[in-house]
Design a protein that fits this description.
2-enoyl-CoA Hydratase, Chain A, domain 1, single chain, about 45% helix, 7-stranded parallel beta sheet
Amino acid sequence: MRDFWKFTGATLLGLVLFMFVKWFIFLSLLGTLLSSVDTTSLSTTSTALKPFSVYKLELSGQVVERVSEDDQASFAVAEALGNSSQKLYGLKQILENIKFAKENDNICGIYLYGGELSANTATLREIRQALLDFKRSGKFIVAYANDYSQGSYYLASVADKICLNPAGSLDWRGLFSSVQYLKRLMDKVGVEMQVFKVGTYKSAVEPYILTEMSDANREQTEALLDVVWNDITTAVGESRDISVMQLNDLADRNLMFEDVQTVLDEGMVDTLVYATDMKNILTALCDTADYTLLSYSKMQDAITDTNKAKDVVAMIYAEGDIVEEGTGGIVAGKLIKDIDKVAEDDDVKAVVLRVNSPGGSAAASEHIWYALAKLKDTGKPLVVSMGDYAASGGYYISCNADYIFAQPTTLTGSIGIFGLVPNVAKVIDKVGIDFDGVATNEHSGVLQTMTIAGLDKDEARQVQLYVNRGYELFTKRCADGRNTTQEEIKKIAEGRVWTGTQALQLGLVDSLGNINDAIEKAAQLAFLDEYKVVDYPKAKSMYEKLLAAFNGEEIADRYAQARLGEAYRLAKQIQQLPKKPTIEARMEYLIKIE
């Protein structure tokens, strides 16, 4: 009995200590969270700007469409747990900061501080356009970097003065797009991928069945890279007064490994200085040594919303892979709730759907399309603003808009459907697992047997017909939305990806423009003179932010994204393979300025 009470007492003491430690860790993380998260949204007073302030825009970290407070909270908690991650910046917030810097008399210029910036081509172009608009104010832009990546240099090229570390480098070598092929790996482990698709150019299935690019995919990828690179070299050439031919010659030489004196001599930068010397340069540009550098978060804190207009243009963000359920990307149910809220809100007079998605689930895309169709039935104009991608499912949810804007370097189209069904029969045989069962009808067990034994000819025929019907519905949605025929859509479909410039020529979009152009068009269609822009989904409460921050799955996902970089999407695809079969409307490869 004595031992019983001894062990019982020790157990209770252990539980008490466990709870104490648990709450200690929680409170420690909470303290770290509150000190790490940008508290802009919690602030009740704005930052008072001093004269001769300079907005320091760091060209490093990851740029997403919009940084919500729970995004920042999740990253902060990951860092508190010892998991370092990239800085996270929102395109929306960066554009707000630049606009505010242009209009505020206390801000005399922008300081672009170079680094490794993770952003795609259309996103960079959006920022670059905002910087060019800022220069119209007559204020200065100066840039500095120890090493310029191609993306950060593309932005820095707008500066009045580009500075480079004498021991640094400038990466200028052109664009490269590669695809990781998994067929040999799958052959080795004994997985056969059963593929069903419609579209000659629908290359999303190729990594599972080929070891190199198909001729069709190589053709479209070369065409896309040519359009994007021409847009980049033209823009840089105009800003630096260097011909496109010369810029291509420099890219062929691979400036990254050239001596920095060559970079200076070729006119790519204006001066070679160390970071500490930038104080003197900024002093001269501000005409005082008493200047103040403002960070991204300080700029956000300084912006106050004084717009009291009653009429609203709703900005709905749709970013990431389109899925039927989950925590990340465009979750159909969550997005539809926001669409329905906007449709029912009498103060909302027009809607802008900001799409940055390579696609995803065809079923989820159809559900979102239907919700947007019902929104249009209310009479509210719907304008789409395309970001880096509005391809496949991303175009599916865009095609019914009253007006569509794309950037010249947006990747869109990819009107095609595919399905993947992994057959792991060889793996099962190797490890010695057997299956048996009974059924009432010939194909009763198809959902179980299709992955462990493969599809027979009749079942494969049925799946292909299912995919074909999905393609017919997709092309019909596009034809109805673009006021043309399915036959005309099918001529430019076949899963082919187009740039925004090409899409304009083909009638898939209505105009080339940015987010602000889309907002102005929506207001124009709704005959609005005074209005305010309200974002959806709306900002979360502090309680919701904390719940999101301590979501283990969310933290793990963001940590993996920060650690794996470009390999993250591939890892997610492999992870989701056992969840197939699903019918997908997706574009799988990315084009980035690195």
